[in-house]
Design goal:
Layout lengths: L1 H5 L3 H5 L3 H27 L26 H4 L6 E8 L4 H17 L3 E7 L8 H6 L4 E9 L3 E2 L4 H13 L10 E8 L8 H12 L3 E2 L4 E4 L4 H20 L14 E5 L1 H18 L13 E10 L9 E7 L12 E4 L5 H11 L6 E5 L16 E2 H8 L8 H10 L2 H11 L4 H9 L5 H7 L7 H8 L6 E4 L10 E7 L2 E3 L5 E3 L1 H7 L6 E7 L13 E4 L6 H15 L7 E7 L9 H9 L5 E6 L9 H7 L1 H9 L8 E6 L4 H17 L3 H13 L3 E5 L1
Parallel strand pairs: 1-2, 1-3, 3-5, 5-6, 5-7, 19-20, 19-22, 20-21, 22-23
Antiparallel strand pairs: 3-4, 8-12, 9-10, 9-18, 10-15, 11-14, 11-18, 12-13, 16-17
Length: 688
């Protein structure tokens, strides 16, 4: 442990000569003076005005290799109950929740509680122990799960540190003075539902921490907003009882930005200047792009993959990354920042009673509530801001309804306020959740609710988050191009509106040469390092995307002289003549020995529907030895990509059936074989 490593050796100290001791003492005083000066300077910038710890704060120095500062240096908590809200986010939701918890705490308890939000990305494994042991109040963990039960990129270091420390078993009382609560953000469609949150909760308990509440798990497949509200309604009474607090009953101020309208030619020049600055900042070829600083990549190709008589659309999109610092590996994910269409942008501007060409600037006011994020870069036109940053086609949160109620009149104000209240839970579910009614539809239904642009972006419309796609290319084939295979979402929803996916529609309509912000998210979806290891790839529809990259990588390996092991590919679509995407490439790969088996399920061409799981059963005698390990010396791997809600579960059942039929295993024995495959990283899922 870190504290043990820093302890001095008494024997070494006794061996020092008196003159050496004097020199050492003098040096120590000098060092202490320097460290003290640094600490004072760090303390002055420790906490942002919104309560979020800055890079010079509590955990800010961890990544630079020194222990965290003391509480007094970074956190004005004298005589107060400490509430630290840690968040591990992938798309920004848990960060937004963390800010809201901090804002609620300040409104409820005033100066009695010192609350802050802390990004788990700043808590590294080397100093996490010291940081948590120093917590004397309550720790909240808002932990998201993505992919195949993985923690978010930003929180993985902390989560795996906690898991490994707990599984070690030698420190059962390490965190005995820590009180905590965990709220998980996940989706029940995934087999590993909220796995990261469960991992954090179990690890903390095993390390001796005291849970304030039972583990609460949010389900984005139903209503994550309501799950979060249920948790926070349970949290505050438990928090008060534990620490002897009483709520002042204050309501949180609605987060809103100050707005400066810039008219005429001055506004036009300011908006153009900001646009040029943005393009320059995001065209940097020397810095690896991230979600916070994506790279503006030019669209090279947009090609329709379905036939002309198909009633749906799927597009192949290529991005030019030549000369950039965008790097990826086969199986990674591509993050894309899309924009709302012109029709949606105009409808929002109409509801706000604003001109799309009006230029404005957002300013975060002094003393703003902790839930107010930093504004996006302005000056900008109203139209561009709505297109790029306003998420208006998803259901509104209750805070948005409360904000709309605050500016509505008459019955509109009463109804919106009721929908936003705890008493309106059932009506909220009926009007918002079940029909999946969008924020834009609500604004059009309650036309008297017209927020100004500062309130709209501060409390009504969430930021548009990046959309992720499994990369459908390999740098082994062309390192200057990264490709996405995109199913275009267009469907009629319960309210009667035609819902068009923001990102898929945006990419479908993208023009050659158009610049779009992108970045790469690392994945664990990787081919075995040994090219002779057998693989089974299962991916219907756009679930084939990463396997297209796999085939390109295997083609390159084959060309380099490597011997390839067996490779089975199971693909599925509706009709051979309408939506058999990349058919020619698959047939070429089969003919040239890049894959050894190609089995395609057409669900609409025959007298009965046939799916990939049916094809797996048909090929049971070939699938079984790879899964069991008798072929490939236990190096074989199974890869599944596509729909999490139905396909992935049905494929899992099919594989269990293969084991039971071909190997004569009981159900629990077959389940144990698949469990071991997952534990050995030989059963991979990239599902959504």
């Amino acid at each position: 442990r870190a504290r043990a490593r820093r302890a001095s050796s008494p024997r070494a100290m006794d061996a020092l000569a008196s003159s050496d001791a004097l020199v050492l003492a003098s040096a120590t005083v000098l060092c202490a003076s320097v460290v003290g000066l640094i600490a004072v300077r760090a303390a002055s910038n420790a906490t942002g005005k919104d309560g979020t710890m800055t890079t010079a704060s509590w955990f800010g120095a961890l990544g630079r290799g020194r222990a965290p500062a003391t509480a007094k240096e970074t956190f004005d908590d004298a005589g107060k109950v400490r509430l630290s809200v840690f968040y591990g986010t992938q798309t920004g939701t848990s960060e937004r929740y963390a800010r809201e918890v901090v804002a609620h705490a300040r409104a409820r308890y005033g100066a009695a509680v010192a609350a802050r939000a802390v990004d788990l990305e700043t808590v590294d494994s080397m100093h996490a122990e010291d940081a948590l042991v120093a917590e004397t109040g309550c720790c909240v963990f808002l932990q998201s799960t993505y992919g195949d039960g993985e923690p978010t990129d930003t929180s993985s270091d902390f989560v795996y540190w906690a898991r490994d420390c707990a599984s070690d078993g030698r420190m059962p009382d390490l965190l005995e003075n820590v009180t905590f609560s965990v709220f998980g953000l996940g989706n029940r469609c995934y087999e590993q539902f909220n796995a990261a949150a469960k991992m954090v909760h179990k690890a903390l308990v095993d390390l001796g921490a005291q849970p304030l509440l039972k583990l609460h798990l949010g389900d984005d497949d139903q209503c994550l907003e309501q799950d979060f509200e249920n948790w926070i309604e349970a949290f505050w009474p438990a928090f008060e009882a534990k620490f002897g607090l009483h709520s002042d009953g204050g309501d949180e101020e609605l987060p809103r930005y100050d707005v400066i309208i810039m008219r005429g030619s001055d506004g036009e020049r300011a908006a153009a200047s900001q646009a040029a600055k943005y393009e320059k900042q995001h065209s940097n070829t020397r810095v690896a792009p991230t979600a916070a600083k994506p790279y503006l990549s030019s669209v090279k190709v947009v090609r329709e993959l379905f036939s002309k008589d198909a009633d749906r659309s799927c597009v192949h999109v290529e991005f030019d990354i030549s000369g950039s610092s965008v790097q990826y590996k086969t199986g990674d994910h591509l993050g894309v920042f899309a924009e709302n269409g012109k029709d949606v942008t105009k409808r929002v501007a109409k509801a706000l009673k604003l001109d799309v060409d009006e230029v404005f600037r957002l300013v975060k006011p002094s003393g703003a509530p902790a839930s107010l994020a930093e504004p996006f870069a302005t000056p900008m036109t109203v139209g561009d801001a709505i297109a790029r940053y306003a998420d208006v086609l998803t259901p509104p949160r209750k805070q948005a309804l409360a904000a709309l109620a605050s500016v509505a009149s008459g019955k509109d104000a009463e109804k919106l306020a009721f929908l936003a209240s705890p008493a309106g839970k059932d009506e909220f579910a009926k009007y918002i959740t079940k029909p999946h009614r969008s924020l834009l539809e609500v604004m059009e239904d309650y036309s008297s609710a017209v927020p100004d642009i500062g309130l709209f972006f501060g409390a009504v419309a969430p930021r548009l988050a990046a959309r992720f796609y499994s990369i459908s290319s390999s740098p082994a084939a062309n390192k200057n191009v990264v490709t996405a295979t995109v199913a275009v979402v267009k469907e009629k929803v319960f309210t009667g509106r035609m819902h068009e996916g923001v990102a898929s529609t945006f990419l479908q309509r993208a023009a050659e040469g158009q610049k779009i912000p992108i970045f790469v998210r690392t994945s664990t979806f990787r081919l075995p390092t040994n090219p002779e290891a057998p693989v089974i790839m299962i991916g219907p529809g756009t679930g084939y995307a990463p396997f297209r990259g796999f085939l390109q990588e295997r083609t390159a390996l084959q060309a380099s002289g490597a011997k390839l092991g067996p490779a089975m590919l199971f693909f599925g679509c509706r009709n051979k003549d309408r939506d058999f995407i990349y058919e020619a490439e698959m047939q070429t790969a089969l003919r040239e020995g890049v894959i050894t088996d190609l089995d395609v399920a057409f669900s609409r061409d025959g007298p009965k529907k046939v799916y990939v799981q049916d094809k797996i059963i048909e090929k049971a005698s070939t699938v079984y030895p790879i899964v069991k390990g008798t072929v490939g010396k236990n190096e074989g791997a199974v890869f599944i990509c596509g729909d999490a809600k139905n396909m992935a579960k049905d494929v899992n059942k099919a594989l269990l059936s293969v084991l039971m039929r071909e190997g004569d295993y009981a159900a629990h024995e077959a389940e144990e074989i698949l469990r071991r495959l997952k534990a050995e990283f030989r059963y991979h899922q990239d599902v959504w």
